């Protein structure tokens, strides 16, 4: 596990996990009681297509990172 993003003011934390079978996952957590719209994760592990599990959709991540909405 590698921590890839932290924002103490917004109470957001993101980390990257992987398995020996090459399965990769990024976990982003909002520990605040505020809905965060357009929250940026600039150091995402890799650009490309990722499966977003909360809403069950495919998202595209660019070289500049990823922006997402985080419910409280």
Write a structural description.
It is a single chain. With 72 residues, this protein is mostly beta strands. A 3-stranded antiparallel β-sheet has the order 1-2-3, with no helix packed on it. Strand 2 and strand 3 form a beta hairpin.
Structural class: mainly beta
As a whole number of angstroms, the C-alpha radius of gyration is 12 Å
Assess the beta-strand content as a share of residues: over 45%
| Biggest sheet strand line-up | 1-2-3
What separation lies between the terminal Cα atoms? 24 Å
Mean pLDDT: 92
Kindly state the number of beta strands: 7
For the structure shown, list the relevant keywords.
72 residues, mainly beta, 3-stranded antiparallel sheet, two-stranded antiparallel sheet, globular
